[in-house]
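Same chain as my last thread, 87 residues:
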Amino acid sequence: MAVRIRMTRMGSKKRPFYRLVAADSEAPRDGKFLEILGYYDPMKDPAVLKIHEDKLNYWLEKGASVSDSAKTLLKKEGMMQSHSATN
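reply #2:
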């Protein structure tokens, strides 16, 4: 099972809210996931990004790959520096 760190969409219509999750790479976008790693709320001003760093580091050490959109958010927060060489 290949694990991927990605975002899953929550919230109502026209009010998106995203969770950052560790999920099986073959699972659907809003389907089953292994663990919630944080959330991203783009509707607030400024946008809110809350990450559980210990959970994120655990999955990155286990070899989880990161989706492009999740990687962009994590780089913006400066959380991909230590793992940039491995991913």
